[in-house]
Amino acid sequence: MAGPAPSADGSATRNPLTVLTLNELRQRSSVKWRMHPPDVLPLWVAEQDVPLAAPVADALRRAIDLGDTGYSHGTAYAEALGEFADERWGSHDFPVDHTTVVPDVMMGVVEVLRLVTDPGDAVVVCSPVYPPFYAFAGHAGRRVIEAPLGPDLRMDRAALDEAFRRARACGSRPAFLLCNPHNPTGVVHRRDELEAVADLARRHGVRVVSDEIHAPLVLPGARFTPYLTVSGAEDAFALTSASKAWNLAGLKAALAVAGPEAAADLRRMPEEVGHGPSHLGVLAHTAAFRAGGPWLDLLLDGLDANRTLLETLLAKHLPAVTHHRPEGTYLAWLDCTRLGIATEQPAGEPGVASDVAGPAKMFLDDARVALSSGHVFGTGGAGFVRLNFATSPAILTEAVTRMGRAVDARRPPVG
Ligand SMILES: Cc1ncc(COP(=O)(O)O)c(C=O)c1O
């Protein structure tokens, strides 16, 4: 049989963010590239402008060549995550036996919430946060209670305490949906912060579900702590996949992991949930965790450089816009409140992720740059935009330059 075709990225030594041209990216048919007309630079949804990592592309090609497109079997995905967690986070004794494959992280979150809460129970979130946390919990009949982040964008212990108390008062089985690391702020929670969460959750009888999809994307200077390694978190769940770090959102497969005291709950997961993930997805995510480390390191170097480039570009073109340097993810949460753009929040629940208002609408209309609108991330989001910097330095530079020009054009002429 012929060997695998050449690697998709052609090189294992190059910053993956600089491989594809804008013309090549525009040929993509995913939502990032098709939601807006071709004159718009898309820096909104969490897709990356990278080619597939070679080990992932090779695994998929091998499966296609073999016609290996049946049902998935075995624990290779969980084992690969366990090896990755051991190597990267020093997280020994990963509980392969306490895992199950779910279609994707958000479907996994919903199914785990169904296991540990009842309809009408409360789900606490730290706003502003990834918009589907509101929508998906709401669609499952759970009531969302916000514990807003503090002014430093880190979790606020007093706000959590109060939210847990309220959550307990409105139903017998509340949960806390933790975003670890946090989207949209890029904050990587420290172990002491997570221990405080575990302590509060135990005291209030709140079950913690930790979304760890951004975990491999922790940048130099910060360290990721898997929630299940925190003392007091034995009854919690974590959900993760290779989707954000290796750009595999179209290849459905994620893992739900149960702490030792949650293993019995996980066994109640309905059988049909395991029918959702695709075998090609399982193969791709397994290959990413098992052999995608060198590619990830090149990506993290590129994201670290983009994080610094973004600071320089903002200082030059948008000095009134401020942000906290993200510690992880490829998302920057930009405070545009000093631009003086009306930020009235549309009535009702935080919106769907693609709703655009306030500064994001101005940047879309006037700069032809698509960003995520802050108001859809819940309380504290209006007046902010989320910028996805998983792109080439050239696209990032062009986008922020355009944004600066759009702001300058709004200023009344002097004199
Ligand atoms: C925090 C967080 N959770 C979940 C998801 C979606 O993951 P999935 O496509 O596996 O549901 C995203 C996507 O950006 C995310 O940022």
UniProtKB/TrEMBL annotation:
Record's keyword annotation contains Transmembrane helix: no
Cofactor section: pyridoxal 5'-phosphate
Gene Ontology molecular function terms on file: cysteine-S-conjugate beta-lyase activity
Keywords, alphabetical: Lyase, Pyridoxal phosphate
Superkingdom of the organism of origin: Bacteria
Residue intervals of the Aminotransferase class I/classII large domain: 78-402
CDD domains according to UniProt: AAT_like
InterPro entries on file: Aminotransferase_I/II_large, Class-II_PLP-Dep_Aminotrans, PyrdxlP-dep_Trfase, PyrdxlP-dep_Trfase_major, PyrdxlP-dep_Trfase_small
Gene3D superfamilies hit by this protein: Aspartate Aminotransferase, domain 1, Type I PLP-dependent aspartate aminotransferase-like (Major domain)
Entry's EC annotation: 4.4.1.13
Entry similarity comment: Belongs to the class-II pyridoxal-phosphate-dependent aminotransferase family. MalY/PatB cystathionine beta-lyase subfamily.
Designated name of the protein: cysteine-S-conjugate beta-lyase
